[in-house]
Amino acid sequence: MRISELTVGHYRGWREPVSWHPGSHALLVGPNNAGKTTLLTAADLVLNPYRDRYRDRLEVWDYPDCDTSQPVEVTVILADLSDEDRDHFEPYLEGRREDGTFGGWDSPEEEFDQ
Asked: pTM of this prediction?
């Protein structure tokens, strides 16, 4: 399994959405305070099923200028999922159909079982 696209908006220092499309191998390089850790933390918010829900909640300082009126938005598109990965993530993910559209939460098992 790998991340093929990660889009993060209204999170920490980013007001507007920022997208990253890592290849099969990726390296994040940049100066201090450029957002490297923020990008990875956003992915961890979505993908880590073992997060401590009390310790790792979003706090007011996770929002740009402490403006909580807009939601944090994180989209992770995964590729190369194994059958075991699909079984694990099926209840939580939308699936991409052959025509490029995404299936909804109402029937995720249909999307991954095809």
From this structure: 0.70
